[in-house]
């Protein structure tokens, strides 16, 4: 029977420990068999309190080895296999990790291993470090009671900060698992309120830039559930790290309508909107690539995604300064783009779309998609909102958007977004419909085919284009 296997190995271990000259090789061999048994949930549950007595003795022996200035390969193997047994015994079961947490000898051993092996660089030593981190990860997953203890150890002694900069990516992945699973409402506060918090966030995002580890993404998402994250943590990061967080934010926003397990607070969207308003004034001052617009471009894309979410649309529709600034910025870059070849100029040659190399070069442009997204945001916040429709009219935004409705390889689908924006601006708004009807018949923006695509029926009368009908909803 399975139970006899555990009893048998524990009995053999007790016999080995009773000998005068304990053989580490024999102990390691016995532990390997116990470790293998612990891979099964059934045998893990067969561990009784009395079975832990010889393990306590081994843990004490392990602590004595750790106190030495040097350890032999046999001793290192012993440390490794004892940790593997403890790690496996804690998988998916609360009784065993709770017993370890409440036993000073058993919990002190992995704590001391962790501190001792952080600076080690040999591969076998890195393996020990990985196993002990996995042990704490299993304890966290199996016992809610463990969170304060693990957090105090890893955060309080800056172990998170040190390990998140480890050269071994597997170590970083294990640490990210521990970091995420040790979070609680109480534990998250130090990320916002201490000097170590921003350093940890910096290290996590650095890791994600080179390796998109799920545990790290989950950690960032957890922080994004705090409405003060942008104002208190995000701003401390370098640009490339901030862009990573914006990418995660937008990816989650795409699913916000369908998922309720994770939501971004409206106040956080408001903070991003305010940051956008502060930064966007620099865009029109760009000369070639003298200003880094990537953050502003990314935030604009997020605001576009948020503007079609029921949870955030009212926040953005009620922000008149956002709409006004967006229209004025569109007007600025559109006019500047017509003043010769510059960073704002359209790329209207079809070859930039069909040639893969040219298409790739265009996609790397710092303002790629920016103009399109300005129009997209205007159209979205004007949908069903007469006050915003009227504001765009007063800002002369309707003919502006009409004039933007031309192919531009730097702004894919800009024509379609212009069509949608005009539709949203004219819907149930007679004053805005009159703007379209009054456009000169000889003006460039009066593209009959384009207007028909928008659902606008027009005819010429006394040199003017008149609106014939507009389907309302």
TrEMBL record:
Gene3D superfamilies on file: Leucine-rich Repeat Variant
Cited SUPFAM superfamilies: ARM repeat (SSF48371)
Cell cycle keyword on record: yes
Domain Ataxin-10: 370-467
Keywords from the named record: Cell cycle, Cell division
GO cellular component: cytosol
One Pfam family, short name: Atx10homo_assoc
Domain of life the protein comes from: Eukaryota
Single GO biological process annotation from the record: cell division
Record's keyword annotation contains Cell cycle: yes
Similarity comment: Belongs to the ataxin-10 family.
Its job: May play a role in the regulation of cytokinesis. May play a role in signaling by stimulating protein glycosylation. Induces neuritogenesis by activating the Ras-MAP kinase pathway and is necessary for the survival of cerebellar neurons. Does not appear to play a major role in ciliogenesis.
Protein name (database record): Ataxin-10
Organism: Larinioides sclopetarius
Organismal lineage: Eukaryota, Metazoa, Ecdysozoa, Arthropoda, Chelicerata
């Amino acid at each position: 029977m399975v139970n006899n296997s555990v009893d048998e190995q524990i009995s053999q271990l007790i016999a080995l420990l009773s000998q005068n000259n304990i053989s580490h090789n024999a102990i390691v061999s016995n532990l390997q068999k116990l470790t293998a048994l612990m891979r099964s949930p059934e045998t893990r549950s067969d561990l009784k309190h009395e079975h832990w007595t010889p393990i306590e003795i081994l843990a004490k022996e392990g602590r004595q080895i750790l106190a030495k200035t040097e350890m032999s390969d046999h001793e290192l193997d012993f440390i490794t296999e004892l940790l593997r047994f403890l790690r496996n015994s804690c998988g998916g079961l609360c009784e065993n990790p709770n017993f370890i947490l409440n036993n000073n000898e058993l919990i002190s051993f992995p704590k001391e291993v962790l501190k001792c092996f952080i600076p080690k660089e040999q591969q076998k030593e890195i393996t020990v470090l990985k196993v002990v981190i996995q042990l704490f990860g299993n304890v966290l997953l199996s016992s809610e009671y463990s969170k304060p203890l693990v957090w105090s150890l890893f955060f309080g002694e800056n172990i998170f900060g040190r390990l998140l900069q480890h050269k071994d990516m597997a170590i970083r992945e294990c640490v990210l698992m521990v970091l995420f699973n040790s979070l609680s409402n109480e534990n998250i506060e130090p990320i916002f309120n201490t000097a170590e918090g921003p350093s940890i966030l910096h290290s996590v995002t650095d890791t994600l830039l080179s390796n998109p580890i799920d545990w790290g993404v989950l950690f960032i998402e957890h922080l994004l559930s705090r409405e003060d994250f942008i104002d208190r943590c995000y701003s401390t990061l370098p640009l490339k790290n901030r862009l990573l967080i914006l990418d995660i934010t937008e990816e989650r926003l795409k699913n916000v309508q369908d998922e309720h397990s994770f939501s971004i607070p409206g106040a956080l969207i408001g903070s991003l909107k305010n940051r956008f308003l502060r930064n966007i004034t620099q865009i029109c001052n760009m000369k070639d690539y003298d200003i880094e617009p990537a953050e502003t471009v990314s935030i604009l894309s997020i605001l576009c995604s948020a503007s079609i979410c029921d949870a955030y649309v009212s926040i953005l529709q009620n922000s008149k300064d956002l709409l006004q600034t967006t229209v004025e910025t569109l007007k600025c870059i559109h006019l500047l783009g017509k003043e010769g070849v510059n960073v704002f100029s359209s790329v209207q040659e079809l070859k930039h779309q069909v040639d893969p190399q040219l298409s790739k070069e265009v996609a790397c442009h710092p303002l790629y998609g920016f103009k399109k997204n300005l129009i997209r945001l205007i159209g979205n916040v004007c949908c069903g909102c007469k006050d915003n429709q009227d504001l765009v009219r007063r800002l002369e935004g309707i003919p502006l958007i009409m004039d933007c409705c031309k192919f531009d390889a730097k702004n894919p689908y800009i024509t379609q977004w212009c069509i949608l924006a005009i539709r949203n601006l004219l819907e149930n708004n007679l004053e805005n419909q009159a703007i379209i009807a009054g456009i000169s018949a000889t003006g460039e923006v009066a593209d009959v085919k384009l207007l028909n695509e928008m659902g606008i029926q027009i005819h010429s009368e006394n040199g003017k284009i008149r609106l014939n009908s507009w389907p309302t909803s």
